[in-house]
C-alpha cells in the first residue's frame, strides 16, 4: 500500500510519523473517510467542508489548499489501483507538546485500501443493538474514538452489525459509524441533534425528497424506534443498509416483520442511481 504523508508518497512499511505527534499521543486530530468508485471520490466537496469545520473546532490548521489535497488523494488512489476503495485523510496537530492552542506543523496522512462489500446485507438486512454512550464532540469528526472501540468490542462476539448510540434520556442519536433513519406511516425520520452530520445522511435526505417521500428531522426515543415500520442506516462505505433486527427483535409490522421494507428499497435504488450519475458527471475527478 502507498501512503501519502505531507505530500510524499511512500510504501506503508516506510511511511512513518513522529512518535511525538499529538495525534498519536493524544488523539488530537480530525479525519474524513471517503468512498472511491473507479478512482472517483464520492461527494468530495462535502467531505472537504466537513473536514474544515472539524479542524476549526479543534483549532487545527490546514495549510494545504483543497486543490492540492484533491491532487494528493487522486494520486494515492491511482497508485494503489483500487477500483472500489476506502480512502482516509487524517490531519493531526503534529508534534506540538502539550500545547493544544497553536498548530505549528500539522501532519497529513492519506491512505487508500481496496474495499470489499458483502452484498448479502442489502438483500437480507442486518442486526443492530443500542448502547448508552456519547460522542465527545458531535460537531467534529475526530480521531479520538474510544467510545467506538468499546462498542465494537462489545458487539463483535454477538455477530451484531452496528451499535446505535442512545443518550441518558433514551434519545436515539446515531450509529458508531453510521446515521440512522426510521420509517413510520411512510415518512422517513432521522435524529436532529447530538450527531455527526454524515455526508451520506445529507445526500439521502435530498434523494428522499426528490423521490416524493416526506422527511422529518427530529429527535426521538428508543421506544419510537422499537415500533418503526422500517429502519436503515447509512454511511459512505456501506451506503444504505436495511436493519431487520433491533435489540434481538424483528423490525416492522405484521407480515413484513424482519424483512427489508419497500421504502428502504426505494432509498437504496435512488442512492445507487445517484452514484451512477455522480461518477459519470465527475469522470475527470
Ranges where pLDDT stays below 50 over 5 or more residues in a row are: none
- What is the overall silhouette? globular
Gyration radius from CA atoms, angstroms: 19 Å
Corresponding CATH superfamily of the largest domain = D-amino Acid Aminotransferase, subunit A, domain 2
Give the domain tally.
Answer: 2
Instruction: Output the number of helix runs.
Output: 8
Classified by CATH, the class of the largest domain is Alpha Beta
CATH topology of the largest domain: D-amino Acid Aminotransferase, Chain A, domain 2
Per DSSP, what share of the residues sits in E-state strands of 2 or more residues?
25-35%
Fraction of helical residues = 25-40%
Order of helices and strands: EEHEEHHEEHEHEEEEHEHEEEH
Quickly give the structural class.
alpha+beta
How far apart are the first and last residues' alpha carbons, in Å? 21 Å
| Biggest sheet record | 9 strands, mixed
Layout of helices and strands, plus pairs?
Blueprint: E1 2-5, E2 8-11, H1 22-26, E3 29-37, E4 40-41, H2 44-58, H3 66-80, E5 84-92, E6 107-114, H4 120-124, E7 126-132, H5 146-155, E8 162-166, E9 172-175, E10 179-184, E11 187-190, H6 199-210, E12 215-217, H7 222-226, E13 230-235, E14 239-246, E15 249-250, H8 262-281
Parallel strand pairs: 7-8, 7-14, 11-12
Antiparallel strand pairs: 1-2, 1-6, 3-4, 3-5, 5-6, 8-9, 10-11, 10-13, 13-14, 14-15
Helix pairs in contact: 6-8
Amino acid at each position: 500500500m502507498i501512503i501519502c504523508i505531507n505530500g510524499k508518497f511512500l510504501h506503508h512499511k516506510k511511511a512513518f510519523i513522529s512518535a511525538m505527534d499529538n495525534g498519536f499521543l493524544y488523539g488530537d486530530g480530525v479525519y474524513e473517510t471517503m468512498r472511491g468508485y473507479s478512482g472517483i471520490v464520492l461527494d468530495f466537496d462535502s467531505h472537504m467542508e466537513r473536514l474544515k469545520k472539524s479542524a476549526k473546532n479543534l483549532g487545527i490548521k490546514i495549510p494545504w489548499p483543497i486543490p492540492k489535497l484533491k491532487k494528493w488523494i487522486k494520486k494515492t488512489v491511482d497508485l494503489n489501483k483500487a477500483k472500489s476503495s476506502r480512502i482516509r485523510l487524517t490531519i493531526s496537530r503534529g508534534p506540538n507538546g502539550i500545547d493544544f492552542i497553536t498548530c505549528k506543523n500539522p501532519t497529513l496522512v492519506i491512505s487508500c485500501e481496496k474495499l470489499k462489500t458483502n452484498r448479502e446485507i442489502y438483500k437480507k438486512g442486518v442486526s443492530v443493538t443500542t448502547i448508552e454512550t456519547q460522542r465527545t464532540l458531535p460537531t467534529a469528526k475526530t480521531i479520538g474514538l474510544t467510545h467506538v472501540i468499546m462498542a465494537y468490542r462489545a458487539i463483535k462476539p454477538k455477530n451484531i452489525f452496528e451499535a446505535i448510540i442512545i443518550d441518558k434520556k433514551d434519545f436515539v442519536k446515531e450509529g458508531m459509524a453510521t446515521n440512522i433513519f426510521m420509517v413510520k406511516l411512510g415518512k422517513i425520520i432521522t435524529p436532529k441533534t447530538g450527531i455527526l452530520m454524515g455526508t451520506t445522511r445529507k445526500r439521502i435526505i435530498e434523494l428522499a425528497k426528490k423521490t416524493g417521500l416526506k422527511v422529518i428531522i427530529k429527535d426521538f426515543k428508543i421506544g419510537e424506534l422499537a415500533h418503526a415500520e422500517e429502519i436503515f442506516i447509512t454511511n459512505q462505505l456501506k451506503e444504505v443498509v436495511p436493519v431487520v433486527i433491533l435489540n434481538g427483535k424483528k423490525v416492522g409490522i405484521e407480515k413484513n416483520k424482519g424483512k427489508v421494507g419497500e421504502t428502504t428499497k426505494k432509498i437504496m435504488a435512488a442512492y445507487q442511481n445517484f452514484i451512477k450519475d455522480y461518477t459519470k458527471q465527475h469522470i475527470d475527478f
